[in-house]
Amino acid sequence: MWKTIVKKELLETIFSYRFPLFAVICLLLVPLGMAVNEAAYAKRVRDYSDQVRLADEAAAAIKIQDIMAGTVTIRGFRRPAPLSVFTQGFESTLPRYYEFTQDGFKPGESASDDETILSVQGKVDFVFLVQMVISLIAMLFASDMISGEKESGTLRAMLANSLPRDTLLAGKTAGGFIALWLPFLLAFLFGAVVLMLGAFPLAGGDTAVRVSIVFLATSLFVLIYFTIGIAVSTSTSKARTSLVAILIIWAAFQLIVPRLGDMIARLVYPVRTETQVSLQKSLLVRSLDLEQAKDLGRQYDLIFATAPKGAADDENSPERKKWDPIRDDIQMRTREKKSQQLGAIDETYEQEKRRQLNLAVNLSLVSPSAAFARTIADVCGTGELERARYLEAVRAHQKALDNELFSKVKRTLMIHGGGQMSMGFSAMPVDASKLPRFSIAPTTVAETLRANARSLVSLIVWLIAPFAFAYAKFRKYDVR
Amino acid sequence: MEKQQPILKAEGLSKRYEDGVLALDRLNLEVGPGEIYCLLGANGAGKTTTINLFLGFIPPTEGTCLINAIDVTKDPLEAKKYVSFVSENVMLYGNFTARQNLDFFARLGGKTALTKDDYYRAMARVSLQEKAFDQRVKNFSKGMRQKLGIAIAIVKDAPAVLLDEPTSGLDPKAAAEFLDIMAQLRTEGKAVLMSTHDIFRAKEIGDRVGIMREGRLVMERTRDELRNEDLNRIYIDYMESEAPAAARRTESAEARD
C-alpha cells in the first residue's frame, strides 16, 4: 500500500507542470552557481599564491636596520577555502591577510574589495539557491499535497479504501520528496562534474567528505521545508490558503527570524567595533611607552648625573653595570604590563562578541534556515569557526614574530627631567629565512560537527516536529 | 425463504455536527445482497452524511453503521475492504491515464495482482471506448469519468457499493448506460446504496426507495409498492408536508411488512 502511494505521488509530481520547471531551475542554476564560484575561487587562489610569494621574498630581505627603523611589516595570508564554491559565508568579508608589526597586528583588505556593484544583489552560491529558491519550491510542492487532494476530491476516493491515514501521509511525503530530490541530486552531481572540470580539488584532504556532508545537510534542509509544507497543507482545507500560509512561514523562517536573532543580540549585547578596540589598544601602548620612557629617563638621570663623560657608552663602567639591569627590568615590566593589559582588552572584546554571538545563534535556532546556513558555512570553512581559527592563528603568529623577530631589536626611548628625549638601540642578529610561516590550523570534520551540535539538533527537531504535527492533524483531517 | 443478512446496515444512526445541526436522525436502513437502495431527498436531507458515515469519514453521534457486519466506527479499515465508493464527480488524477488511475485505485482496494487485460475488461464493461484506455483523464467528459469510477468499483469487487448522486450531470445516453451497469451489479449480488435526486431513475432501478427529509427517513417503499404509484407525486408530498412525519414512515413500514 505504502509503495503504491509513493509511486503514485512520484508519478503525479513528475507529470505535473511544476516538475519540469523545477528540474530546469535546478539543472541550470546549481551547476552555473558552482561554475561561477569555482572561477572566482581559482582567481583568489592565484592571487593568494602570488601574494604569498611576494611576501616571502619581502620577509627574506628583512634587515636588522629595517626593524630598528620600525618599517618592517610582515603579511600573513589566509588561503581561500575551496568549499567556498558552495557557500561564500565570510569568505569575501574576512581579511585576505593580516599585517604584523612590532606594535601588533591589523587586518588587511578583504576579498570584497574586488567585488562589483552586482554583489549588492546578494551572492548566488549553492547555499543561497537552496535557501531562497529550492526551499520555497519544496514548500510549494508540498502545499497542496493534502488540501489540494481534498479540494479535488481524490482524498475521499483514496480514503474510501482500507488505507491507513499514517500510511497515506508517509507515502505522500516520501513520494513527493523523492520527486523533488531527484532533480536536485542530478543538479548536484552535474555541478560536481563542472567543479572537477575546473580543477577543483574534490579529492584533496577531507574535501570529498565535506562535500558529502553539504549534500546530505542540504537534502535534510529541503526535506524539512517539504514537511513544513505538508504540515501547513494538513492544517488547511484549501490549496490557496495553504499557499498564502506557506509564503508567510517561508518569509518568517528565511528572512525575518535569522535577522531578528542578530538584531536582538546586537541590542541586548552591543559590541564595540574592531576600530574602537584597536584605538583603545594603541592608546594603551602609547601610554605605557610614555610611562616607560619617563621611568627610564628618571633612572638614567639618577645614575649618569654624576658619571664621567663616556660612562654611558662604556659597557664596563660601574654606572653601565648598574643601569643595564635597571633598564632591562623596567622594559620587562612594561612588556609584561603591555601584554597583560592588551590581553585583557582582547579577552573582554572576545567575551563581548561571544556573548552576542551565542544569543544570536540561540535565537536563530528557531529558524531551520539559520541553523542550516551556520552548519554549512562551517563545513565549507567559510563560517564562524574559520573566522575564530583565523584570529587565533593571527595572535599566535604575532607572538611568534615578537619572539623571533621584533624582540631582536630593543629601542630605548627616554624622557629626561627637562623634557628632553633620547633614543638608544640594541640589536641581536636575525635570520629572516627562519621566520615562522603564517598558517591556520585546519578544523577537522569531527570538530566542525561538534561545534555545530546545537544547529544539527535544531535541524533534526525541525524535521521531526512538522511531520509529527502533520500526522496529528491528518489523523483528524476532515476529508469531506 | 430465509432473509439474507444485510451487507449495509444503519441502526439508529444519528449525526449532529459541531455547529449543532442534526444532519441525521436515528436512521435505520438495510441493504441486502443483490439489492439496489435509492435514497432520495433535497439538498441537506442527510443522504451524503449517511454515505460519509458508512465510509468512516465522520463519526456518528449515536447508533452504528455496519458493512458486512463490521462496525465502521470500531474497525473502519476492515469495514472499508467490503465497500466501493463512486462520488457525484468522480475524482481522478487528471495527469494519469484511465489505466493508471484504475491500477492505482485497484491497488488501494487490495487488488495487487490484476493484469492490463483485467483493467481493459473492466473498462470495456462500463462501455469506455478502447481508445480512451491510455488517454489522460483530464481530457475525459463527466460521463467518461463516471464510467471509469464505476470501473474502479467493479475492479475492487467489494460486496457493497456506495454511490453519491452518480447520475447528476450525465446526458441521457450516459445515464441509461449507467443504469445498465447498476443492473449488472445487482445481478452479481452487490448491495448498492445510491443517493440521488433523480426520481425517475430511482424508480426504474431501485429495489427499494427511501425519501429523506431533515435527517430522517420519512418514507421507504419497495419496487412492488411503487409499481402503480407516482413516485414524483409522493416525493413532492413528503417535501411539502409540514412535519416530517415519523408516523408516515411507520405506516409505510407497517404496510410493507
Characterize the structure shown.
The complex is a heterodimer of chains A (480) and B (257). Chain A has 480 residues and is mostly helical. Chain A has one domain. Chain A is 68% helix and 6% strand. In chain A, a hairpin with a 5-residue loop joins strand 4 and strand 5. In chain A, helix 2 packs antiparallel against helix 4, helix 2 crosses helix 7 and helix 9 packs antiparallel against helix 11. Chain B starts with 7 loop residues before the first strand and ends with a helix. In chain B, helix 6 links the parallel strand 7 and strand 8. In chain B, the strands form 2 sheets. Chain B has a 6-stranded mixed beta sheet with strand order 6-7-8-3-9-10, sandwiched between helices. In chain B, strands 2-1-4-5 form a 4-stranded antiparallel beta sheet. The C terminus of chain B is likely disordered. Chain B is an alpha/beta fold and 257 residues long. Chain B has a single domain, classed as Rossmann fold (3-Layer(aba) Sandwich), CATH 3.40.50. Chain B is 37% helix and 24% strand. The radius of gyration of chain B is 18 Å and the shape is globular. Chains A and B meet through helix 1 and helix 6 of A and helix 2, strand 6 and helix 3 of B.
Brief summary of the model shown:
The complex is a heterodimer of chains A (480) and B (257). Chain A has 480 residues and is mainly alpha-helical.
Task: Tell me the layout of helices and strands.
The complex is a heterodimer of chains A (480) and B (257).
Chain A: H1 2-15, H2 18-60, H3 64-69, E1 74-77, E2 97-101, E3 104-107, H4 126-143, H5 147-152, H6 154-159, H7 165-197, H8 207-235, H9 239-268, H10 274-304, H11 318-364, H12 368-379, H13 384-404, E4 409-415, E5 421-427, H14 445-451, H15 453-475
Antiparallel strand pairs in A: 1-2, 2-3, 4-5
Helix pairs in contact in A: 1-7, 2-4, 2-7, 4-8, 4-9, 7-8, 8-9, 8-12, 8-15, 9-11, 10-11, 12-15
Chain B: E1 8-16, E2 22-31, E3 35-41, H1 47-54, E4 62-67, E5 70-71, H2 76-79, E6 83-86, H3 98-108, H4 116-125, H5 142-156, E7 160-164, H6 172-187, E8 191-196, H7 199-205, E9 208-213, E10 216-222, H8 223-226, H9 231-240, H10 246-256
Parallel strand pairs in B: 3-8, 3-9, 6-7, 7-8
Antiparallel strand pairs in B: 1-2, 1-4, 4-5, 9-10
